[in-house]
Amino acid sequence: MKINRHALILDIISEKDIETQEQLAEELRRRGIEVTQATVSRDIKELRLVKVLSPSGIYKYAPIDREENGVSDRLIRVFSESVVSMESANNLIVIKTISGSAMAAAGAIDALNWKEIIGCIAGDDTILVVVKKDELVNDVMKKFSKLMKA
User: Fold this and answer.
1) HSE of 123 in the Cβ direction (CA atoms, 13 Å)?
2) Per-residue pLDDT reduced to its tens digit, 63-114
3) Most CB within 10 Å of its CB: which of 3, 18, 44, 100?
4) N-terminal to C-terminal alpha carbon distance within the chain
5) What is the pLDDT of residue 64?
6) What DSSP string runs through the chain?
7) Angle at 22 between CA 19 and CA 108, to 5 degrees
8) pLDDT tens per residue across span 104-128
9) How many angstroms separate the Cα of 139 from the Cα of each of 35, 36, 66, 81, 93?
C-alpha cells in the first residue's frame, strides 16, 4: 500500500543518508517492498523530498520542513486523513485509524519529534502513543486534534 511505502521511505531517510533513487529502491527491497525506479521517483515527488547537505558532507534525501514543526505537509495530511478516533488512559493515547494506515500515521507522529512523546507503536489500525507524563496527555491530544484540522 502506498501510504505504508511512504511511511517506510520516511523511516529509511531518517535512519540512513540516501543519496540516490537507486539506493532508496534497494533499501525498500531489503525491507520486502518491490519497487521500480519510476515508483520511487513518484514517491519522492509526492512526499516532496529534497536533497540537503548532511553533516557528513554528502547530499541526501530529506522531507521539506514545515515551518512550525519540521513535518512535511504530506505527512500531516496522511495523519489527518487516517485518524478515526483517539482515547487516553494515564500517560497513553490510543489512536484508531482506517485499516492499514496506522504505520503511516505513526510515522507522522514520530516525525513530529514532540518532546512530550516518548514513542509510539503501530499495528494495522491502532497506534499506541506513550507520553512522558500523565498531565501532558491532554495537551498532546489537543495538538493531534489541531493537526487533524490543518
Assistant:
1) 8
2) 765 433 445 666 777 888 889 999 999 999 999 999 988 988 898 898 888 9
3) 18
4) 24
5) 65
6) -HHHHHHHHHHHHHHS---SHHHHHHHHHHTT----HHHHHHHHHHTTEEEEE-TTS-EEEEEPPPTTTS--HHHHHHHHHHEEEEEEETTEEEEEESTT-HHHHHHHHHHH--TTEEEEEE-SSEEEEEESSGGGHHHHHHHHHHHHH-
7) 65
8) 889 889 888 899 999 999 999 999 9
9) 39, 42, 20, 21, 11
Angle at CA of residue 48, ends 44 and 51, nearest 5°: 75
Name the packing angle between helices 73-82 and 102-112 (round to 10°): 130
d(CA 148, CA 99): 17
> CB under 8 Å to 58, separation ≥6 — which residues?
17, 19
> Which structural domains are found in the chain, ordered by start?
2-63 (1.10.10.10), 73-149 (3.30.1360.40)
- Contact between 83 and 96 under an 8 Å Cβ cutoff? The reply is yes
Burial of 30 (0-12, 13-18, 19+ CB in 10 A): exposed
- What is the grid cell recorded at 128? 499506541
